[in-house]
Design goal:
- The structure holds 2 protein chains of 2 kinds.
- Chain A has strands spanning 4-7, 10-14, 19-25, 31-37, 43-49, 52-56, 59-64, 69-74, 83-90, 98-99, 103-108.
- By secondary structure, chain A is mainly β.
- In chain A, strands 2, 4, 5, 9, 10 and 11 form a 6-stranded mixed sheet that branches. In chain A, strands 1-3-8-7-6 form a 5-stranded antiparallel sheet, with no helix packed on it.
- Chain A contains no helices and 11 strands.
- By secondary structure, chain B is mostly beta strands.
- Helices cover 0% and strands 53% of the residues of chain B.
- In chain B, strands 2, 4, 5, 6, 9, 10 and 11 form a 7-stranded mixed sheet that branches. Chain B has a 4-stranded antiparallel sheet with strand order 1-3-8-7, with no helix packed on it.
- Chain B is globular, with a radius of gyration of 13 Å.
- The chains are: A mainly beta, B mainly beta.
- Chain A binds chain B through residues 30-31, 33, 35, 40-45, 48, 86, 90, 93-97, 99-102, and chain B through 1, 32, 34, 38, 43-44, 46, 49, 91, 93, 95, 97, 101-108, 110.
Chain lengths: 109, 114
């Protein structure tokens, strides 16, 4: 059983819709990361969280340490947001990451 | 944000040859770099942790003699796939960790072994 579970596995939204991706984990962590992977393969680090909430442009990430749960929200989604979004956790302070399976997001015009 | 480069971005080689992939942190010093492999439609799998000036730490099941890692400086780590075989064909990605603990990923190297 993967220690990092993401849902949904796939998501299709129309342009402008609000998107939420969820991540649950079962281990103690020092930080949680949200990553974006485009079809070409390159990965962009969106957020690193250890508590609370962070916002960057149309993206918002929240984490609840007690419930071992994080969410990534995309407001006013756009076709260029189409990508795989990956949740990853750092169980220790050394930086090793454990990855969720990813959520394939497709935003249609 | 911080930039990590990888070279080459794509390589095709014959079975039995060795391939070297470079990972560089361009605007920060990275004491720790990580090497990942990703098969199609699958998540990233950590292969090894590379610390500057010391031997790499390999994950279980990853052959250290096949995947040679050298972290010669605070901005460069290399992964050499020795005696490559078709089953080594994959997407190899590195990441570099800055002093704040944030990780920045390279663009990846697609290796195809014929």
């Amino acid at each position: 059983k993967n220690e990092v579970e993401q849902s949904p596995q796939n998501l299709t939204a129309q342009e402008g819709e609000f998107i939420t991706i969820n991540c649950s984990y079962s281990v103690g962590i020092s930080a949680l990361h949200w990553l974006q992977q485009h079809p070409g393969g390159g990965i962009v680090s969106l957020f690193m969280l250890s508590s609370g909430k962070k916002k960057h442009g149309r993206l918002i990430a929240t984490i609840n340490i007690q419930e071992k749960h994080s969410s990534l929200h995309i407001t006013a989604s756009h076709p260029r947001d189409s990508a795989v979004y990956i949740c990853a956790v750092s169980p220790d302070s050394w930086g090793k990451l454990q990855f969720g399976a990813g959520t394939q997001v497709v935003v249609t015009p | 944000g911080a930039v990590v480069s990888q070279h080459p971005s794509r390589v095709i080689c014959k079975s039995g040859t060795s391939v070297k992939i470079e990972c560089r942190s361009l605007d920060f010093q990275a004491t720790t770099m990580f090497w990942y492999r990703q098969f199609p439609k699958q998540s990233l799998m950590l292969m090894a942790t590379s610390n500057e000036g010391s031997k790499a730490t390999y994950e279980q099941g990853v052959e250290k003699d096949k995947f040679l890692i050298n972290h010669a400086s605070l901005t460069l780590s290399t992964l050499t796939v020795t005696s490559a075989h078709p089953e080594d064909s994959s997407f190899y990605i590195c990441s570099a960790r800055d002093q704040g603990g944030e990780q920045f990923f390279g663009p990846g190297t697609r290796l195809t072994v014929l």
